[in-house]
Design a protein that fits this description.
The protein has one domain. 25% of the residues lie in helices and 43% in strands. It has 1 helix and 5 strands. Strands 1, 2, 3, 4 and 5 form a 5-stranded antiparallel sheet that branches.
């Protein structure tokens, strides 16, 4: 089973996944990444009016296979 790595980016803040997760395929990795992105955003959203959350999915030492992103913008009028 392939091992996928989920690197997290939030503006200047980033965390590289050094452990990875074994999943059956890239579609399963996509689902895992979307769930994680939602959980991270839920915890972080109260902190600011402009956020760009990203999770980059890769195989070990490889380039990104997929990038998931969630953009938050609040315009005060």
């Amino acid at each position: 089973m392939p091992r996928y790595y989920f690197d997290y980016l939030d503006g200047p803040k980033s965390l590289q996944d050094d452990e990875g997760t074994e999943l059956p395929d890239l579609e399963a990795a996509r689902s895992e990444g979307l769930e994680t992105l939602g959980l991270v955003a839920k915890d972080e959203l109260p902190d600011g009016d402009h956020r760009d959350f990203r999770i980059s999915i890769r195989e070990e030492n490889g380039p990104a296979l997929m990038v998931l992103s969630l953009l938050l913008r609040v315009e005060r009028k």
